[in-house]
Design a protein that fits this description.
The complex is a heterotetramer, with two copies of chain A (507 residues) and two copies of chain B (454 residues). Chain A is α/β, with parallel strands linked by helices. Chain A is 37% helix and 10% strand. Chain A is built from 18 helices and twelve strands. Chain B is an alpha/beta fold and 454 residues long. Chain B has a seven-stranded mixed sheet, sandwiched between helices. A four-stranded antiparallel sheet of chain B has the order 13-14-17-16, with helices on one face. A two-stranded parallel ribbon of chain B has the order 1-15. The relative contact order of chain B is 0.14. Classes of the chains: A alpha/beta (507), B alpha/beta (454). The complex binds pyridoxal-5'-phosphate (2 copies).
Chain lengths: 507, 454, 454, 507
């Protein structure tokens, strides 16, 4: 038994299908308890399946062991620092899981008659009100399932808005720092993306913006912006930007992924945005689940409201003096229609509403304050060490909730790519920051600590980066071969794409 | 910490926000509450919903009150699965990545198609994503859609189509099933895809193979929406010529949650692998030759491809897919089939039982697997109210989405619905209808004579 | 497998059981059920209990309806804590052992005594174990017990005493507190231990220090039972001269569970460390000098010492002690004190509010921390029934265990009991008493004049 | 960073107190909401605490991380094979946790009026009936909190029984193979232990038993026996043993820790036992919780019944033709009294009753059958390999649900103590069997696989033992220095007892 191999590394991956043994099972069912007929008499045999799908045959104890052991091959927020830029990996209070699991929420059928789902509808209405207040835009639809879904919704709303005014616009402007979902959503919504340059302060390059607008103002449907942007910097020209877009007749879309920086401090609506999406799984603490679920509610201005998706949760004051009641409004003649089934990711709404109730208005503002403080502290700690030279901050000014470093000097001087640094961080027990985004920054490293981290965690992270850079000065190979102690070491991603094996072969 | 930053107050850090744009008042939200208070508040709201624990639930329409085994909660609530994000760093995400790989294998087995992604948002938006894929694959802009496709799917497809610029043509139903003739006529050389659902929204098991011929003939993709819980007994779409099989994943290990979060599954032929939406885990090796898994084919995705991405999805529903995988492992190869059979038998019984109730007739005679439609000879809304008062959610009223079936009710069966509950449904429904028609006596007389049927 | 063993049937393996002793029929138990069926069956039984979610619960008497924070469930439900057994192999049990060490530290801090074990079964049996310790330590066989000690503790101590052969002498109460004079008289040179409780069963905070003097004087051990939730504000037993401080641990992170499982905590002076019952984790090092934890002082225990063991306990309540530790960490140093203050303030309010209700008078005027006793001028059982019908569990009737207080009711307060609920209790209790006394009108009149008090 | 140190080993133990920082907190409370008075006015200041206890000051995210990371320093049944002899480490179905957590169970106050706790009392009554049937003894008390508590109860019942007949007996017989709790309970109950020898078949040495009885038959209060005993062997002479004890006027106590071997196959009552305790946390699948909670209900014969603890759950048929009702009977004049507070570990009862409902009568019998089959298979697998020579089974016959090996030859021939083998097994990812018990067997190794293990797990374990023995033949030092890959390596237990440090020092 080699001692250089960790216990986890020694345990080679084996899928649940490989643990299957004919005849084993976990589930048992009572017999139907009704007079039975041969299946062929119920359904024509040409529509029936010959062989059952080859699902694993395995008993409960081994299922539990399989997934428990697998789970330990994940790094998770509940066991360590996870400064994944742009993802707002804040702590997920367990209370939110508890209230989401209440039978009145978890076992409520989405088609329940609204008169018998008043609690759920009121909760959704209260969440709409809260998000409207936080965003400074009064009308909210909770339907979008995530941020990118919200973006698509926003662009379809833009299209509907223009169409309603008899206009057909074709272009959507977005800075070169924008997140990948922005341009992807633009195309899906049938628009053409026009990239806008970034200025030396990390904001929108105003001359380029003017130029892009002036090319054909009547073609400008929308400008999509993240503010603070993906560099973690607040664009001071936002008022002027809004004026220019509105003058051209376009709408202004706010990508709310970075809302965690400004809650209670500045509101997209007040900045002049018409449409905002909110990633509830970021600023509002829905656990990230290994890649979802989340939700991407949108808040919009009065002029956009008529086009909001169907159905919409509405509150009705009672005529007979009783309390208000809540309903689903399906009659929205100008609505863009549905974006998904039923009412949205309700379970996510419960968690985020519980989060808002827990923190309250001041608590949210405080959260943003601490998030910004933590980011600037970590930025300063790093700048004070080797990172100051090797990993300089891309735009040197106070950041908001996150900041972006450039590994360019590190690569040139030490031959260490940002990826190497990231992989080496794994050996130190940290989740690396987001890497190679935004594209604008060479060898980018995007760091977002969030407000729920302690100073000790930030210091430990800064120390690890320092140690890795020091180590690399004497021997860069160490980082280039990293990681060493993870369940598996560097994986061949190219192979996985060249000759993709995307399912288990079964005989 | 301020010292290290070189500021005196945190407020200085916010000065980059122009003064006029800074909120000069606290948010108009209530003060924060203690954990116990938040719990009481939300328990209070939850208490005002009639959930499937308080009511006997025969409502389906795409989401079903199945029993979710306890191990699903036990495993999905583990921090290691609950709190990480998308596995961008595979070396420390093997747990999540292997689950995706196992899930893809399971969905591929269920649908009979070789390629599965790791899951999308939910059912209807997956249908819309299939449309986007079909346009890319065929360079055509026309969809032919069966009216048997879930209304939410049809609406969502329509919403998206306005965006990516496609035309949607709908084909009606005949005797509860897609009108084969009309479909054949509707499909042409401009058709990018044909959308079917089986069992369709009215519960009828469609002959996908036969209906799909039209698509094949004109080189359109055949997209089939299906209910995973029926795939233990129904011929998988892949064996019926489907290019894409997708659907709402909720019945697999996910709670009702008033509609979400759940997940959409999305499977396709090898041919479409590079046009797939969503994450896909692939098998590979590490530098020492250890087996491992990574996000494969990322070149399809928005974070690499940006405006040329095959889809805009980023955060999906990984945890819900895990729940499905655990549920499927628990059901196992044979349990999964047995469950499908159990549903079919009880559904057949319930259908016959209800057909025997005065004032109830079948909406169609087509074969069904787990859900069926009836007509009521009394105002549906009023009848449902009466049933609700007796603790029964009797079904899904078809009126809003199918004006032509204003008297229609869709009734769903899960393994949680016992024979006794089905009998209770029949009696309660009968009584409610009779009461609505003001002849309770006639009903009583008639009921006793029905006893034989049960 | 049979082949490897060398038998043809499993039955052969059972042949070592003489035929006449083999059960020749199946067990007379129902057939096995599916998971969903078992769930429904037990949910049905649970539904027939009036729990603290359905009733506003003012019942205490040793177990209290505190709010258990969600992280307690999240952590105690982790397989790594839930499914292993006693940490006999420390190298793979550091998690559990460190938790024990942290727990011991916390209980030592709460009680002000240097040594704590990792927990015993629950409160009353811990009292009995203290008796066994005291006999070993003093070689005496006589216990003097305050009537303020929980009736269950007194009964359990008596039960055990019949076994290990000790005599139990009880000292009565005066004005809700232990009769100091009688106690001083009762204690003598043969006394092994004096047992007090503070707050005592009637809620009164005792002057342990003063009462304990008698024990000191005669070289008897002073054993003090206490409610952990009051130790944020009350002087710790260790500072009052207690040799042993123990109690029911349920208020710390454990659910009501109709009485168990919870845990008993047990702390003592350094002098008694080698006489302690139960597991004790100790700090040490591994061969490479790494800090680690092990089961210390095992030479006290049954698996080593057998008949000479300091106690017979083996399986204890480790998971419940973990729940307590997580709850205490969540409360934190200041939160723990604030909670104690919150309870004291609301209790004072409730006591005053109830004292103002027609037909209610205080049973004693002694200082209280979280629970108090009143007398009702109406049949207690009937009054409690009326309150229950209005969704309030008004308190614990003293009659059975304190015949001298046949009209007594013990009322407990937790942070879950809001002022509104306390007011509701007062009104409901008042109405119930009035109704029992048949003069509802008098009550109404009186109530309005009371409004001032509230 | 040394690569011979695993990531977990590198992470040195740090207690939650050491992570505490003044001012941090998780819990917040609303203000009392009532007119407040200074504390000193409510409680005399001499009774008040000066300083709050030094509990940790730490926020929720770090509490969660602390205990999550700690948890991974445990080996658990849900991740691997755990053949800890005498402890019946069978799988714990998660369903049982789910039903135990239902508010109707979890938030039911123990002092609730029985008329408003009918569901709980019925459940307890049904569990009593089930255990009575399984044990073949009609009367059951659920009160004891664990096995040893049940033993004490049984001995106090014995005392009450004899006292009732005007007898005062002083001796309790127990075989030298008995579990430590047996003699410990005997002393606590005020009796004297008399050890009975074991014969060459692993059963009670009849001549010695007779001799010990004949010394003074009138002094024999009870014989405590485990059957199958701690060697995993069924004592074929049990009928004769029972006859002898009964003839002497003593009671026969059955230590039910090994009931998992005989459920539905043989019943203690039918063997002649008067009193049985059942470890619900063993045969009836209560999770072991790192050392509890459990429960040790007792089942007794008619002659013992009058003395059962108070209160007792009883069923009352309704006189008015309605259904039966359930109550707590406190009026039991001959009862030995209470053994603890309230009604017992109800939460444990819920889990075990759910387990019994799930398996049913046949399922329980099948469980025992598989447990016995698995034990005999593993015994055979081991005997076929090096263990056959080095680790021979102590008494060579078919075993029941467990078996005991002797490491004596291994120690003599390879210099490997049973402890070394156990520690080396840790490196292979197994929990070792119980070691050095029963005392009778030199270098004992007690193996109990349970029925929920797969053949693959048994084979893997046998292979590991084989590999360790082979390895030791070439180099015994490897095992003597083991373990290598555990979070910590061999610990100094002597130090921990010599100079015990049992709490964190805080300033
Ligand atoms: C800046 C930005 N915009 C948009 C998105 C997309 O949001 P979602 O992943 O919820 O679809 C993200 C999330 O990664 C993001 O960071
Ligand atoms: C044979 C035997 N008897 C008695 C006991 C004591 O049971 P408990 O630990 O539940 O007190 C045990 C448990 O370890 C045992 O194995």
């Amino acid at each position: 038994m080699s001692l250089t191999e960790t216990p986890m590394q020694r345990e080679r991956a084996q899928t649940i299908y490989e643990k299957s043994k004919p005849g084993r099972r976990a589930a048992v069912f009572p017999d139907a308890g009704v007079p039975e007929k041969p299946l062929q008499e119920l359904i024509p045999s040409n529509l029936l399946r010959a062989e059952p799908p080859r699902l694993p045959e395995i008993a409960e104890p081994e299922i539990v062991r399989h997934y428990n052991r697998l789970s330990r091959r994940n790094f998770d927020l509940d066991s360590g620092f996870y400064p994944l830029g742009s993802c707002t990996m804040k702590h997920n209070p367990r209370l939110n899981e508890r209230v989401a699991a209440l039978p009145g929420h978890a076992r409520l059928h989405p088609a329940q008659d609204p008169r018998r789902a008043q609690g759920a509808l009121e909760l959704m209405w209260l969440l709409q009100q809260s998000l409207g207040e936080i965003c400074g835009l009064p009308h909210v639809s909770l339907q979008p399932s995530a941020g990118s879904h919200g973006e698509l919704a926003g662009l379809l709303l833009t299209r509907a808005y223009h169409a309603d005014r008899g206009e057909e616009r074709t272009k959507v402007l977005a800075p070169d720092t924008s997140h990948g979902t922005n341009p992807a959503s633009v195309t899906m919504a049938g628009y053409e993306v026009v990239k806008v340059a970034t200025n030396e302060r990390g904001g929108v390059e105003m001359d380029d913006l003017r130029a892009k607008i002036d090319e054909d103002p009547g073609a400008v449907a929308c400008l999509m912006l993240t503010n603070p942007n993906t560099l973690g910097l607040f664009d001071e020209n936002i008022a002027e930007i809004a004026a220019l877009i509105h003058a051209a007749g376009g709408t202004l879309y706010y990508d709310g992924a970075n809302l965690n920086a400004v809650m209670g401090h500045s509101r997209p609506g007040d900045m002049g945005f018409d449409i905002v999406h909110v990633n509830l799984h970021k600023s509002f603490s829905q656990p990230h689940g290994g890649g979802g679920p989340g939700a991407g509610p949108i808040a919009v201005s009065d002029r956009i409201e008529p086009f909001l998706p169907r159905p919409q949760v509405v509150r009705r004051e009672s005529d007979n003096g009783g309390g208000p009641s809540y309903d689903l409004d399906h009659e929205r003649p100008q609505s863009i229609g549905r974006l998904r089934g039923f009412q949205g990711n309700f379970g996510v709404f419960v968690r985020s509403y519980a989060y808002i109730l827990s923190l309250g208005g001041d608590g949210l503002a405080e959260a943003s304050e601490t998030a910004v403080l933590n980011a600037n502290y970590l930025k300063a700690r790093l700048a004070a060490g080797r990172a100051g030279e090797r990993l300089p901050v891309a735009f040197d000014r106070h950041c908001m909730h996150e900041f972006v470093l450039s590994g360019k000097p590190m690569k040139q001087e030490l031959g260490l790519a940002t990826l190497d640094l990231a992989k080496r961080l794994l050996d130190f027990g940290f989740h690396p920051p987001t890497v190679y985004f935004p594209l604008l920054v060479e060898e980018a490293l995007m760091v977002e600590p969030t407000e729920t981290e302690t100073k000790e965690s930030l210091d430990a992270f800064a120390d690890a980066v320092e140690q890795i850079l020091a180590e690399a000065e004497s021997d860069p190979e160490i980082a280039k071969q990293a990681p060493y102690t993870t369940p598996v070491r560097r994986l061949d991603e190219v192979k996985a794409t060249r000759r993709p094996v995307v399912r288990q072969a079964l005989e | 910490m301020l010292g290290a930053i070189g500021v005196d107050t945190t407020d200085e850090l916010f000065e980059q926000i122009p003064q006029p744009l800074r909120l000069d008042r606290p948010l108009a939200l209530p003060d924060g509450l203690s954990e116990a208070e938040v719990f009481e508040r939300l328990a209070g709201l939850a208490g005002r919903n009639a959930d499937a624990e308080q009511q006997v639930c025969f409502v389906g329409a795409g989401m079903y009150d199945h029993y979710v085994p306890a191990i699903v909660d036990a495993i999905t609530s583990r921090s290691e699965f609950l709190t990480p994000y998308t596995p961008y760093q595979p070396e420390i995400s093997q747990g999540g990545l292997q689950v995706m790989f196992e899930f893809q294998t399971a969905m591929s087995e269920l649908t009979g198609l070789p390629v599965s992604n790791a899951g999308l948002y939910e059912g209807p938006s997956s249908v819309a994503s299939a449309g986007y894929l079909a346009m890319g694959a065929t360079k055509r802009r026309r969809f032919v859609v069966s009216r048997g496709l879930h209304p939410h799917s049809r609406e969502t497809l329509a919403t998206y189509s306005v965006g990516y610029g496609a035309e949607v043509v709908e084909v009606g139903l005949e005797g509860g099933m897609t009108d084969a003739g009309a479909l054949a006529e509707a499909v042409d050389g401009e058709t990018a895809a044909v959308f079917l659902q089986s069992p369709n929204f009215l519960g009828a098991v469609e002959d996908v193979e036969a209906l799909g011929a039209a698509a094949k003939e004109h080189g359109a993709l055949l997209v089939v929406a299906c209910d995973p819980m029926t795939l233990g007994i129904l011929k998988p779409p892949g064996e019926c010529g489907a290019d894409i099989a997708l659907g709402e994943g909720q019945p697999l290990g996910n709670r009702l949650d008033f509609g979400g979060p759940s997940f959409g599954f999305f499977c396709a032929t090898q041919e479409q692998i590079r046009r797939m939406p969503g994450r896909i885990a692939g098998e590979t090796e590490d530098v020492d030759g250890r087996r491992g898994f990574v996000l494969a084919l990322q070149t399809r995705e928005q974070h690499i491809r940006r405006e040329k991405a095959t889809n805009n999805i980023c955060t999906a529903q990984a945890l819900n897919a895990l729940a499905a995988m655990v549920h499927l492992a628990w059901l196992g190869r044979h349990g999964f089939r047995e469950l499908g059979e159990l549903l079919a038998q009880r559904t057949a019984y319930a259908r016959e039982r209800l057909a025997g109730v005065e004032g109830v007739e079948l909406l169609h005679e087509a074969p069904v697997a787990r859900e069926f439609a009836v007509r009521l000879h009394a105002p549906v809304a009023a009848v449902l109210d009466r049933c609700a008062e007796r603790g029964i959610a009797a079904g899904y009223p078809l009126g809003r989405e199918y004006p032509e079936y204003g008297d229609g009710l869709l009734v769903a069966i899960t393994e949680r619905r016992s024979r006794e509950q089905i009998d209770e449904l029949a009696d309660t429904l009968g009584a409610a209808i009779a009461a609505e028609r003001g002849d309770l006596l006639a009903y009583e007389a008639n009921k006793s004579s029905q006893e034989g049927v049960a």
